[in-house]
Records
---
Amino acid sequence: MTQHQRAPSLCNTRAVSDAPGRGILPHFSGHSAALPLLYELDAQPIEQISPLVQRQMLHGVQATFVKWIAKKGAIFRLHHHHNEQFTWIVEGSCDVYSQGKKFAMKAGMMMIIPPNVPHEFICTEDMIDIDFFAPQRQDWINGVAPAAAGP
């Protein structure tokens, strides 16, 4: 599986079954209603971005979801992007620097970074970070390396 391929959808497994009459809006065309896709996050390919950073991600039509697994000392260098970014620290901690401020984030905290706002992350301990970007990260789809890859 290449780095940008997804693990198979779970839509053809026992996790998805028929539910006649449920989840249907009356007068809504079935031709314009796409079926949701179900994935197991841990089955997604793990990309080694740098010696200290790994990533798993999924791209939707309008957004990108990322699970970062970073070791203490990992750095996501100062950068910005046109995407709004929601960051949720699930385990560990990091310091985020933006606009002359230091934000000490620990497990359970969330940060919303507006589009085009410069920011950098320094992992102060091993960390799992869940990020959601909108619109989708077309730069990553096109193969551009993330800020965690280094200078």
---
Amino acid sequence: MARPRSYRDLIVWQKSMKLARAAYLLTDSLPKKEAYGLVSQLRRAAVSVPSNIAEGHGRLTDLQFRHFLGNARGSLCELQTQIELAGDMGFIDAEGVRRFMEQGSEVARLINGLITSLRVARTASPESTTPQTARSAANSASSASKGLHS
């Protein structure tokens, strides 16, 4: 897969930024007593999603990019859990939770699609051999050649 020149060109990054902004706006309405609890956690998780996408894009390999996309997906799950908790606590109405979860689900689908496309690109490319599989192949070849010379 050819990467866009900038992470800003990735639709998943754009939508995750929109989700982070929505989380910030939503946390403004939470009780002040939650400033160091749920508000802080929500904001950190929300910022982590596009940040991990951007950091992964800046890494050198698709494998590293996929690792950071996995981190972004984990942060998204954390964010959705916290939104659900805020709804259960009565801090956010059911419609607000539903809308936020829909946005989050769209970002999750985009992250998963990008992970899949990077995985497919990796298995299709000749340089997809990892050091571990290269070592295994070398050991197999060595064992085979020893068997021939016995």
